[in-house]
Amino acid sequence: MASYLITGSSRGLGLALVSRLIALPASQVATVFATSRQDQPSANLKEIIDRSAGRVAHVQLNTTDQLSIKSAVQQVERQLQGRGLDVLINNAGVQPMTQGGVETMDNLTDAFSINVNATHEVCRAFLPLLRKGQRKVISNISTALGSIAMATPYLARTSPAYNITKAALNMLTKQYALNLEKEEFTVFCLSPGWLQTDMGGSGADLSSEEGAVAVLDLIQNANHRETNGRFLNIHVPGWEHAKGFNRYDGKEIPW
Prior knowledge:
Structural class: alpha/beta
Distance between the termini: 33 Å
GO biological process, one term: secondary metabolite biosynthetic process
GO molecular function, one term: oxidoreductase activity
Family: Belongs to the short-chain dehydrogenases/reductases (SDR) family.
Low-confidence stretches: none
CATH topology: Rossmann fold
Mean pLDDT: 94
Keywords: NADP
CATH class: Alpha Beta
Organism: Aspergillus avenaceus
Radius of gyration: 17 Å
């Protein structure tokens, strides 16, 4: 009976992950801590909480605020009642757009604060609870746009700050994976694909529900020996050899 904490759960992929998790048996998923910056859950998240039979708890968490992070840790610790946290999914992030490319980029500092530094602060704050968990999994939601090796095909994108900070997130993930290796943690980053969310837009490849299924398949099958320190793509049947840049083949993404 695993426990999960997901940042950025009020909408998009985070919300879909919460919904998918409680569709699984309680014998697999005991508790889901769904976090958001707001004091109260969004209407969609509240609906999931109300039908979860107590398996989903809302946690107010502003990932860029140290006091908010500390308060969230204390709340989760109380509700776990001596048990550990099994899985941390760092999903919260921003994708600021820049018309004109990197030369006109003026949003890098804010993007770093949310996409990189906030993830670091959340990771280290929840490490004591994760150390007490059975699975010891940290999954950071990244993107193929953060791959340096694949930067040329994505040059036309108008999100340089997003691409840069996700590349930095990948290195942050690798550092945690190396530092926690001896404790048999599983720390990895994954690309959830181009999803039909507020961030991805309605013309994206996959629904948030499809993305959530594929993301959780990776997370639930993750293990220290095979997954720690890797950068993985989701697998969606039928997308392995799709035309264009986006192929969801379940393989490792080049750094």
